[in-house]
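Exercise: predict the structure of this protein bound to 2-deoxy-2-amino glucitol-6-phosphate.
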Amino acid sequence: MCGIFAYLGPRNDAGRVVIDGLKRLEYRGYDSWGIALQTGEDRLWLKKEVGKISAVENLELPNAQIAIGHSRWATHGGVTQKNAHPHLNEKGTLAVVHNGIIENFQELRKELKKKHKFRSETDSEIITHLLEDFLEAGKSLEEAARLASFRLQGRFAFVVISNSERKLVAARRGSPLIIGVGEGEYFLASDIPAFLPYTRHVNYLDDDQMVVISMDKLIPDALFLTLEDASPISKRSIEIDWDAKGAEKGDYPHFMLKEIMEQKETICRAANQDDALIHEVVDLIKKSKGTFLLGCGTAGKVALTGSYLFSRIAKEHINAVFGSEFPAQAHFINDKTLIIAISQSGETADTMEALELAQAKGAKIVSIVNVEGSSMDRMSDITINIKAGPEKAVASTKATTAQIAVLTLLAYAMVGRLNEAKQLLVDAASQITEMLNPRYDGYIETLAVKLKDFESMYVIGRGLNYPMALEAAIKLQEVSYIHAEGFAGGELKHGPIALITQGTPLIALVSKDESEPEILSNAIEVKARGGYVVGVSPENNDIFDYWIKVPDVGNAAPILSIIPIQILAYKLAVLRGNDPDMPRNLAKSVTVK
Ligand code: AGP
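Solution:
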């Protein structure tokens, strides 16, 4: 949520490096963008615009070796040029980019307004004015940043430059900021793919830490300090194994399509986990007095899928909770509790806050994440990496199915059947390889053409497919903007069936298990009321108006059921003229509450 990118180094085109970096971060926020450059003039050079950074071409930029930039997802203040970052002080000598939310912004704004003229409605501009006050009191840029951070409540990552000091100064509490370490040059970004074309060596800034990257001092590396008392922290950079190509679209028109297609390989990669690691987590589950699966949005639906998998395969009760709802369960948490967090980014604020709450009560934390070195990875007792590679489309696809694959391993391993789970997933992956072909794609596109002008559609499932009906609805909502809702098949007759009129599309996710007759009955009830029934099922049935075949893969059914819906959502988005990679109002990594 909001992308930060900054550069310091020998290149004279720091502005272009930052613009390109912001383009690779655009999935984090795309309302507006801005950059500030240190050019040697009295005022920093500034450019801010409403709109997407990806549309920017041939921008004339002055030479600079230090630059900061930002791609915004609006929280405080509308989508306007003034509210875009960076925020400069009146003299134009200081520039700040910020990600997060400053919770005490109203009181700080009131106080600072007595002395400073605010030019935006944002909470972020407060940081600029706080810094200016500390600089005027004779503090250095880094000391000003450190002291300013004491005044801020909430989550933040900010980077500041001035017109006079040859440095980048950044601080973090709760929002991600990663340092890319090149040959005598440094990159600061909210996410790793942004600087992958330049370096794979990274340093993670942890909460309550700051970094000073300077051209003036001969320092061996960026200087890391605690925010509390500016004590130096020693950090070694690590090499990550993502490559720049994996984070590019290649020949695909959109990341979402590329990532859907990658599921041929990502399920196998996710299944290929170290047995010892899986057994370590299983031991924790067995020892715990209460395990909670936790996630938000799609990851929340995966958590629910996990609860069904554990019940079905391991006969083990595991709770599934949305991160934002976790505080309501907090009184059940103690040092015997185990929390398993599910998150693609490893940065989602609602999940992070739930984990911090649980950790404070002594609970153990396991995280299932895609981003190595993410906040959740680093705060967990054990991390399972789903190994899906960079997921850039806002709508999660390959991370979703990889997370389900890992939960399937855990559920089977609980009853000593880990190898069986690995085989099941490898078989499912090979079926996906056969399924994802141009004919299948065209067949789903034909359905998308039929459905594209409907105002509403519904999805039903039972058992393992119930959480996938909920996930299907999220996928359809976020990229097609068609009103979609998912229900447990049996729940329809308790209310939602009143919504069915002549032609209303209903997608039934059907598996070849004990739930099959009942979900078909639910679909028949809808058909009897004029509904248009789309069956996603291994077998055709007379009641289906449109049949999307999915292979019968037993307990891997949730993975297979969701893939055609991902394709359908993508096709609907394109047919309706939406950008599936950057849907309106959304951002990839939701680092605000
Ligand atoms: C997925 O399609 C959504 N964009 C969203 O619900 C997402 O799953 C959620 O914000 C959680 O993100 P995370 O996996 O990075 O924690």
